[in-house]
Amino acid sequence: MESRLEHLVCLTPDEFKRRGDLSTLRWKLLAHGDSWFSFASKRVNAHANLLEELVFSQPTLAVSCAGHHNALRRMVDLEGSPDFIRLLDGEAVWDGVLLSVGGNDLISAAQVPALQPDGSITPLRLRLLRKQTEWGAPSAGVGRYFSEEGWATYCDYLRANLKHVLSLRDDGPNKGKPVFMHCYAVPVPRPAGSEDADASSGPWLYPALKAYAIPQADWAAMSRLMLSKLATLLKACAADKEGYPNLQVFDSTQVPIAPATLGSSGISGDWHNEIHLNHSGCFKIARAWSTHIEAVLSGKPLVVAAPPTGRGRRS
What we know:
Elements: E1 6-7, E2 9-11, H1 13-18, E3 27-33, H2 41-46, E4 55-56, E5 60-64, H3 82-91, E6 96-100, H4 103-111, H5 148-169, E7 179-182, H6 205-211, H7 219-239, E8 247-250, H8 279-298
Parallel strand pairs: 2-5, 3-5, 3-6, 6-7, 7-8
Antiparallel strand pairs: 1-4
């Protein structure tokens, strides 16, 4: 008989300070990241939260520094998160760290325009997309639109930031504890932004691909190319045990997610908007990722389960 699974208990740093007895917990995790982790009520009501859907066979708590504040927009913002740095660097001992980072940086790199404000051309090493006069041969597929020079710059940036996070972990009592990262599901570029009124309200990939005149028929494949390259990069870092000790990466691109309909502007498939999953999408990825996390925490061999079906905690 399958053991009963319990949802991860998520607390903000302030709530963690007021928490009393922790003896009933099997695992304690520290979490930080982008809007996939943020559990501010306006974000959870707007789309979903991956942390909320994580489940474990024994009581598990996560202190999320994404919390009720703005989620990370760039990896380098980790350095400016005092709660995360304080909790990682010695105020508490954790069984592991959960990170949701890299996706916003990828989107920002895709949004870099071909022309700078003074009219000069942005060097290829500083952008991910090629303007029409720079496209490669049709035989290259959607790779003809992609700047490998810019990708190399992004890779250097992400590797340096990951090394820095691991060095922060290893400076204190949490040295060597596993750092868990997920990859990102592949979105369909479409005119579906969030309800927020700030500059990050989206859509995100859709205007970038339009600005570079990439044919609409290639948008879905272009998105898959970029997200697959990010997944390959993260998995390569995790495989480098000396350079990135105990970095654990889960490939979310392999979880079957119902795609949104091209051109749709609202909830579609397993997506709330262009880049955020709805609750059914988060449920699917979180259940698969939970299995990976618990296997590492418990030291048991990872058994790949069948992809989950159904909806998450919320309808």
